[in-house]
Amino acid sequence: MAIFDDHEGFTSVVGTIGYMAFELTSTGASTRTDVYAFGAFILEVTCGRRQFDPEMPIEKRHLVKWVCGCWRKGSLVDAIDTRLRGNFKPEEVDMVLKLGLLCTSIDPEFRPRMECVVQYINRQQTLPDFSLDTPGIEALTTYFRR
User: Fold this and answer.
1) What pLDDT, in 10s, does the model give residues 35-92?
2) How many structural domains compose the chain?
3) Which domain holds residue 78?
4) Which of 33, 34, 91, 142 could form a disulfide with 21 if both were Cys (CB 3.0 to 4.6 A apart)?
5) SS3 for 2?
6) Is 14 domain-assigned?
7) Which pLDDT score is estimated for 4?
């Protein structure tokens, strides 16, 4: 992602859709927008698919929305890449997918700092207690209903 100033007062944001935080065009880049991109990356790697795939059925096109839907159904493990063929620990998948959703929260203030993300991954700290109804997370499912 990059932000360009065209010297005439206009600023352009260039980057990969799905990795750019919602607030990027209004407030610019920050460590919170980097956390968003990292969360999107976590979800892509764990699920084995892109953030947006127009070839997928409508309910699966937006990766974040689909992961939220799997969580709502009580089967987060259904969101993982099928190529893993059972070679994973369900509790690790649960943590990684929830961390990805936490990092991609629409509310930048709800996203963890990167040092906390590293602590979560290294199991030095547990994820905060949150649900699909948590502001910022709940808004993800609303936003992607469009």
Assistant:
1) 999 999 999 999 999 988 889 898 888 899 899 999 999 999 999 998 988 888 999 9
2) 1
3) 30-143
4) 33
5) strand
6) no
7) 42
3-state secondary structure of 84: helix
132 near 141, Cβ under 8 Å? yes
Report the candidate in 103, 110, 49 with the shortest Cα–Cα distance to residue 81: 49
Residue 92, in any domain of the structure: yes
Q: Domain containing 103 — which CATH number?
A: 1.10.510.10
Q: Are 33 and 20 in contact (CB under 8 A)?
A: yes
Task: Please state the φ and ψ torsions of residue 37, each to the nearest 5 degrees.
Answer: -60, -40
Amino acid identity of residue 109, one-letter, is: E
Task: Tell me if 7 is assigned to some domain.
Answer: no
Q: Residue 95: count other Cβ atoms within 10 Å of its Cβ.
A: 17
Spatial separation of the C-alpha atoms in residues 107 and 136, rounded to whole Å: 5
Closest alpha carbon to 48 in 16, 80, 76, 71 = 80
Q: E-assigned strands of 1-146? A: 2-5, 11-14
3-class state of residue 103 by DSSP:
helix
Confidence label for 3 from pLDDT (cuts 50, 70 and 90): very low
Whole-model pTM above 0.90? no
For residue 22, tell me if it sits in a domain.
Answer: no
